[in-house]
Amino acid sequence: MAKIIDGKAIAAEVISELKAETAKLASHGIVPGLAVVLVGEDPASQVYVASKEKTARELGFRSDKIVLPKDATQADLLRVVEDLNNDPGIHGILVQSPPPPQINEEAVILAIDPAKDVDCFHPFNVGKMLTGAHDGFHPCTPAGVMVLLERSGIDTAGKHAVVIGRSNIVGKPMAALLMQKGKNADATVTIVHSRTKNLAEHVARADIVVAAIGKPEFVRGDMVKEGAVVIDVGINRIADASTKSGTRLVGDCHYAECSAKASAITPVPGGVGPMTIAMLMRNTLAACRRAHGLA
Ligand code: NDP
What we know:
Helices cover 40% and strands 16% of the residues. By secondary structure, the protein is α/β, with parallel strands linked by helices. The protein has 2 domains: 29-113, Rossmann fold (3-Layer(aba) Sandwich), CATH 3.40.50.10860; 140-273, 3-Layer(aba) Sandwich (Rossmann fold). The strands form 3 sheets. It has a 6-stranded parallel sheet with strand order 1-11-8-7-5-6, with helices on both faces. It is globular and about 55 Å long. Bound molecules: NADPH dihydro-nicotinamide-adenine-dinucleotide phosphate (NDP). NADPH dihydro-nicotinamide-adenine-dinucleotide phosphate is lined by residues 141, 164-167, 169-171, 193-195, 199, 212-215, 233-236, 252, 272-273, 276. Residues 141, 164-167, 169-171, 193-195, 199, 212-215, 233-236, 252, 272-273, 276 line the site of NADPH dihydro-nicotinamide-adenine-dinucleotide phosphate.
């Protein structure tokens, strides 16, 4: 039976380290500031934003939430981003995705000051990540996976990692971080996606499988090599009449089947999810330190 990689516990550990660091900064009168911008009141986004705000406040950060009406224009949003870029008390800016259709998301990402781009969506920071620079940011979800692997004592060097999914938010940066030269990386990486032929054959060769496709329980036990490490990024809500709400969350991997084959596995919920928020806070703290010349 696989060891469970407890993302909730590891995220709590990271948060408590960040809290100690934040307290040290506070004694010098420095307070990290995170601003989250929402356009419209999409219920799923509200939930994510609420937990980001809660964690930021718990850490002692300044936490701003700016909600624009759902019919706000591109110009309205760009004005808000510009104000935040110019606010010295704000070190991290994120615009909750997906925005409504009248907003050009790419233009918004480009408008965020790269020094405050704590989501690491700006091409400047994506480029820095790819080249292995240490003065940019790493995108929160893949960075969280790397910390989970490291703190669970999983050696990635020379291992064959198969990343399922090639989104800009998860799959591509995940592959980039795993293949990076250096400690806690150095993996040999294959990326598979919806156009890959014989996907199951690639996955079967993986020492480490990272699933980020958004398809409930897509990775079955018979696809996974005995002893592989399974990292499940997926968050999917499916119908389940046996629960009070009538639904439950599952990952992109079939947990019962994969945990019978794997040596270690992340659960959903309680695996990668909590790490994403912890990494957002880590990036914001790093941005604050840099803004004060402390990096
Ligand atoms: P996207 O929809 O942006 O990307 C999905 C990727 O999976 C695409 O590259 C797509 O291929 C590939 N894919 C889809 N279907 C298949 C298939 N049948 N076979 C092979 N590949 C397939 O999703 P995201 O990357 O944003 O998110 C992936 C999952 O991770 C979702 O469940 C999401 O909710 C979750 N997530 C969780 C986070 C967390 O904090 N834990 C954070 C972000 C996301 P193609 O490119 O060819 O279309």
